[in-house]
Amino acid sequence: MAPELVRGDETHPSTQTDLHSLAVLLFYLWMWHHPFHGEMEYRVRCWDLQAKKLIYGEKPVFIWDPQNTENRLPADPDYRTAKKRWQTMCPSSLRDLFTKAFTEGVEDPGRRVTEGEWQRLFLQLKDSVLPCPVCRASNLWDPHSAAQRCWHCIRSLPSPPRLEFNYSGKPKHYLVLTRGARLLHRHIDPHADEEHADQVLGEVVPHPSDPKLWGLRNLSKTPWVATAANQQVAEVPPSKAVSAVAGLRLTIGGITAELVN
Q1: d(C-alpha 103, C-alpha 65), whole Å
Q2: Where are the CATH 2.60.200.20 domain residues in the chain?
Q3: From the centroid of its chain, how far is CA 146?
Q4: How many other CB atoms are there within 10 angstroms of residue 126's CB atom?
Q5: pLDDT per residue as tens digits for the range 151-190
Q6: Which long-range contacts (CB under 8 A, 24 or more apart) does 141-148 make?
Q7: Global model pTM greater than 0.90
Q8: Phi and psi (nearest 5°) for 206?
Q9: Could you report the per-residue pLDDT of 121-133, keeping only the tens digit for each?
C-alpha cells in the first residue's frame, strides 16, 4: 500500500498508488524482502497497526537509500539473503530503478516508476542473460560492471559479444549473443505491438564446419545489409548467415545494429 494511503491522507487509490504497490511486488520477487524492512523494522517489538503505520506510511525509508542510512539491513542471518541478492544478482540498472521507486517515488507520487519503464528494463534484462562458461548458471550481464563475476561460482565473466541498437530519442538497447539467441521484431521496432513483437527475425548459429565460429542467420523474409569493419558491404538473403565478428553492422528494417565485444 502506498505511504499516503497508509497515513490516511486525503487521497484515494489511483494509478499513482498502484505504481508504488507494483514496485513493492517486483522488489519482493527479486529480493525476497520488503524495501522498508531494515533496522527500523528490526527494532520494533510489537508489530501492531501503529508500528506498521510508522514503517510503511509515516517514515518509510528504503533499506538502500543512498542518502539516508538509518534503515540499513541489520546484522542478522534472516536479512542475509536480501543483501546477497542486491549485491550479487541485481544489475545496476534494476538497482537504480528500485532506488528511484523507493526514494523519489515515496516523496513525490508523480515521480514513481511507470509500467513502461519497468517493461523496458525487463525486456533489456531478458536480452542480457549470459550463461557462466564454467558452471552454466544464468547471469544478467551488466554493461556498467567492469569486472562482473558469476553469482553462483564467483568466477569472472567474460564480456560477451552483443548487438547494440540505437533508436532515435530512446536509450541504447543491446542483445547478448549466446548460442541460440534470437533477434526479434521488437529489437528493430521498439513500438511493435504484442502480436508482432516476438516475431523471430534472426538467430545465432554455429559455423557448420567450425563450432568455435558463430554467425547470425537471417530468418526473416527480407534481405539484410551487412557492413564489415573494413566497410565492405554485402547482402544477407533470407536463410543465409553472416559471420558474427566485432565491428559488423547490420541494417534491418531501417535500424542499424553494431556487433561489439
Answers
A1: 7
A2: 161-260
A3: 17
A4: 11
A5: 899 999 988 999 999 887 778 899 999 988 999 999 999 8
A6: 141/176, 142/91, 142/92, 142/93, 143/174, 144/92, 144/93, 145/91, 145/92
A7: no
A8: -75, 155
A9: 999 999 999 999 9
Give the length of the chain. 261
Distance between CA atoms of residues 124 and 210, nearest Å? 30
What are residue 224's DSSP bridge partners? 236
Alpha helices in 159-214 (DSSP H): 185-188, 194-197
d(CA 93, CA 113): 13
Kindly give the pairing relationship between strand 233-236 and strand 255-260.
Answer: unpaired
Q: 43 is written with which cell numbers?
A: 527494532
Q: Which three cell numbers stand for residue 208?
A: 557448420
Taking the C-alpha atoms of residue 56 and residue 146, their distance in angstroms, rounded to an integer, is: 36
CATH class of the structural domain 161-260: mainly beta
